[in-house]
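[step 3/7] inverse_fold.run input=structure_tokens len=334
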């Protein structure tokens, strides 16, 4: 029905006018929503004789124009929304010589994983949806993660590639593997299934669930507290203990204690848009923020921007938080 309306409108337009707008061919890189066309006019549209175009061609032009406007509004420096995650992972590996990929490029893993297993050190795996970089692939390295499994933007990775990652890290490794999972339904299901499959093969593998969002405390919630940037602290504790040669059981016990002893507070100043979309994921008024709160006797401060806040702002936040902690005479671990 909608296409017929478009056809009728364009047919009427064609009968009344001699010109229409057409998009230029663009480069593959969108920079701040703009397209580059070397050696051509800076205008994004050209006037061409409308009489030389069929209705189907005009409909295609309209669709291309709509797609361009959506991409321009989202303002992402990407080649395409479909390849954004894979391109980012490839770039990460290219600038970090100690890393490589597996499972079609959706798993980042240390090149020395076999040496880690030969030293009988516990291998550490984490992962989840992309879009909050450097989490989680950016935490792969000495003293942190052995591997990270990357899903699509804000989406849990498939259970199969999680399973294959566990096989790579846990096989021929008597020390075993720890998998750190964020407390989201998709992650719990996909990582949980992969871990159970690995255990069924006799592999030594355990899971620690990061669930430290102190803005969610209701006991009747099916998922409970979310796993936020506090899971990075668990990754660090687990990675450091592994480097020190601690056993899997001790690492699991310590990480679970860390999880129940911390809280994360998230502050949202505004919504984001997924790559390729101009629609915000939620709405906030111009004078509104989203905020939660918790406190404790000793404070380990991790200030994280989830990939969307400038370091200028983060340093201001750090100053205010540390000043408040100092005035309250809290013990601070930076």
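[step 3/7] decode complete -> sequence:
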């Amino acid at each position: 029905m909608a296409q017929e309306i478009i056809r009728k409108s364009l047919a009427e337009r064609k009968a009344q006018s001699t010109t229409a707008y057409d998009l230029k061919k663009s480069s593959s890189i969108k920079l701040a929503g703009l397209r580059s066309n070397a050696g051509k006019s800076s205008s994004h549209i050209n006037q061409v004789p409308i009489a030389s175009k069929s209705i189907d061609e005009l409909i295609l032009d309209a669709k291309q124009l709509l797609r361009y406007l959506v991409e321009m509004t989202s303002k992402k420096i990407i080649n395409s929304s479909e390849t954004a995650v894979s391109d980012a992972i490839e770039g990460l590996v290219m600038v970090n010589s100690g890393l490589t990929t597996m499972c079609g490029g959706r798993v980042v893993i240390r090149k020395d994983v076999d040496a880690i297993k030969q030293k009988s050190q516990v291998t550490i795996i984490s992962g989840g949806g992309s879009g909050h970089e450097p989490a989680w692939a950016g935490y792969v390295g000495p003293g942190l993660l052995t591997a990270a499994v990357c899903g699509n933007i804000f989406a849990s990775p498939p259970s199969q590639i999680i399973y294959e990652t566990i096989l790579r890290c846990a096989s021929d490794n008597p020390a075993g593997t720890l998998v750190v999972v964020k407390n989201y339904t998709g992650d719990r299901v996909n990582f949980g299934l992969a871990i159970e499959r690995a255990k069924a093969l006799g592999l030594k593998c355990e899971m620690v669930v990061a669930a430290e969002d102190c803005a969610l405390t209701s006991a009747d919630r099916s998922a409970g507290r979310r796993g936020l940037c506090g899971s990075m602290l668990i990754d660090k504790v687990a990675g450091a203990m592994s480097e020190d040669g601690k056993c899997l059981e001790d690492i699991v016990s310590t990480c679970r204690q860390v999880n129940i002893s911390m809280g994360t507070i998230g502050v949202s100043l505004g919504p984001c848009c997924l790559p390729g979309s101009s629609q915000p994921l939620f709405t906030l008024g111009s004078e509104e923020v989203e905020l939660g709160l918790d406190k404790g006797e000793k404070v380990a401060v991790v200030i994280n921007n989830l990939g969307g806040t400038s370091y200028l702002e983060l340093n201001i936040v750090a100053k205010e938080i540390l000043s408040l902690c100092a005035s309250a005479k809290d013990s601070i671990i930076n």
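[step 4/7] annotate
The longest strand covers residues 123-130.
The chain has three domains: 2-74, 84-260, 298-333.
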